[in-house]
Specification:
This protein has 129 residues and is α+β, with helices and mostly antiparallel strands. It has one helix spanning 2-23, and strands spanning 49-59, 64-69, 72-86, 89-90, 101-109, 112-120. It has a domain at 49-120: Copper binding periplasmic protein CusF (OB fold (Dihydrolipoamide Acetyltransferase, E2P), Beta Barrel). Strands 1-2-3-6-5 form a 5-stranded mixed beta barrel.
Amino acid sequence: MKKMISLVVLLTLVAFVSGAIATAPPKAATTPAPAAPATTKPAPPVKLEKFTGDIKNVDAMAKSIVVAKGKEEKTFLVDDNTKITKGKEALSFADLKAGMNVVLDYKKDGEKLIAVTIKASVPKAPKKK
C-alpha cells in the first residue's frame, strides 16, 4: 500500500512539473548575431576650390550666378546648402546683386560648379586725409 501511495504521489508530482514546464514562456532562442556588413571606404573629402571676382549676372530662375575676374568668367549654381554671408551677416540668394565682389568656395560635379560658400565683400571705409 505504501508503494502504491508513493507511486501516485510521484506520478502526480511529475504531472504538475511537466505541466508547469509546458506553460512556461519559451526562452529566447540564441540566434547568431548578424554578420557585420563589409566595411566600405568612406568617400574622399570633396576638394573645394576658390574663385574671386565680381558678380556679372544673377539668374533667379536657374539659381545661378556668373562671376568674372578679368576676362575669365565662371557660372556657379547655388543650392539650399550654399552659405551666403557678408561680414558676419547671413544673406539670401535674393541679396546677391550684379557688381558685388565675392569670394566663392565651390566644388565640381561633372561640368557643373556648385557654390558651397559665397562671401560678399564688406565695402571698405573711405581713407581719411
